[in-house]
């Protein structure tokens, strides 16, 4: 009867097993836990040295691998430094062996002159004519060089004038840049009963030198009223915006006002 009674009672006969399992679990999670029992101290002392020895062996092998890598890197650096030193020595020897060549003397460049004849500027001609004048006084008023200088001055002046004329002709033939502008106009009618097709026809009937009409469209404004948006390209020197607006507003039966929506230089 007593045995049957204990079978039905909930008594924890094997609690030490659960204590050991809990201790091992916390040792795996947080490391070994100190306890007062001699069995726990014996188990920790038996397992500790083996784990420490394995850890030391792994760290030593890792350090040996790092040492070998560092030695190879140092050897590569020493080889690179040796090559750089050899190249510097070779460059120093080559620079000392080659001496710089002497700089050639500069030559005076004479200005452009007429072939086989000496060209003189008009401003310098009076100074040069003083020398023949002195020679005339010394040689009993005999003019030996005056006539030649005058002929050379006249011929040089003709050559200069001819070149200036050719340059002016060449510059006149070169076309200049024509400044143009792209203008977007908003042409507004009087009311919704205005014939927009007729109004566009009237606007396009304006012809000016330097004016080219482009695309157009009707843009709704409100209350059934639409405005004519038309684009044109004008030459700035020939057509101004004020003149263009005046010409469009002359069609008073269709046009109420004209505004510039966009203005861009081309």
What do you see in this structure?
There is one protein chain. The chain is of the alpha+beta class. The chain is built from seven helices and four strands. A hairpin with a 2-residue loop joins β2 and β3 (225-235).
Query: What share of residues is helical?
Result: 40-55%
Q: N-to-C SSE series?
A: HHHHHEHEEHE
Rounded mean pLDDT is 76
Task: Report the biggest beta sheet as strand number plus sense, adding barrel if it closes.
Answer: 4 strands, antiparallel
Coarse shape: flat
The rounded Rg comes to: 55 Å
Uncertain ranges = 33-38, 111-119, 121-130
The assigned structural class equals alpha+beta
How many strand segments? 4
Note the beta-strand portion: 15-25%
Total helical elements = 7
| Spatial gap, N to C terminus | 118 Å
Strand order of the largest sheet: 2-3-1-4
What's the short version?
It contains seven helices and four strands, in the order αααααβαββαβ. By secondary structure, the chain is α+β, with helices and mostly antiparallel strands. A hairpin with a 2-residue loop joins strand 2 and strand 3 (225-235).
How would you describe this structure in keywords?
266 residues, alpha+beta, 4-stranded antiparallel sheet, 4 strands, flat
Topology record:
Layout: H1 2-8, H2 15-30, H3 38-97, H4 125-138, H5 146-173, E1 180-189, H6 196-204, E2 211-222, E3 225-235, H7 241-249, E4 255-265
Antiparallel strand pairs: 1-3, 1-4, 2-3
């Amino acid at each position: 009867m007593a045995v049957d009674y204990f079978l039905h009672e909930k008594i924890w006969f094997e609690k030490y097993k659960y204590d050991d399992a809990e201790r091992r679990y916390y040792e795996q999670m947080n490391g070994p836990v100190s306890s007062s029992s001699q069995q726990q101290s014996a188990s920790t002392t038996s397992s500790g040295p083996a784990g420490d020895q394995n850890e030391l062996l792994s760290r030593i092998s890792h350090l040996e691998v790092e040492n070998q890598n560092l030695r190879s890197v140092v050897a590569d650096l020493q080889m690179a430094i040796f090559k750089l030193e050899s190249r510097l020595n070779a460059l120093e020897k080559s620079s000392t062996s080659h001496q710089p060549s002497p700089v050639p003397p500069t030559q005076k460049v004479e200005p452009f002159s007429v072939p086989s004849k000496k060209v003189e500027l008009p401003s310098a001609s009076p100074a040069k004519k003083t020398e023949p004048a002195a020679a005339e006084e010394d040689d009993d008023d005999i003019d030996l060089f005056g006539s030649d200088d005058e002929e050379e001055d006249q011929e040089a002046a003709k050559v200069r004038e001819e070149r200036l004329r050719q340059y002016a002709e060449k510059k006149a033939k070169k076309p200049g840049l024509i400044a143009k502008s792209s203008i977007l106009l908003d042409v507004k009618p009087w009311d919704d009963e205005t014939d927009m097709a007729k109004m566009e026809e009237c606007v396009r009937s304006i012809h000016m030198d330097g004016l080219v009409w482009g695309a157009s469209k009707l843009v709704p404004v409100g209350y059934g009223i639409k405005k004519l948006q038309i684009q044109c390209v004008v030459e700035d020197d020939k057509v101004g915006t004020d003149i263009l607006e005046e010409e469009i507003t002359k069609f008073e039966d269709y046009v109420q006002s004209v505004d510039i929506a966009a203005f861009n230089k081309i």
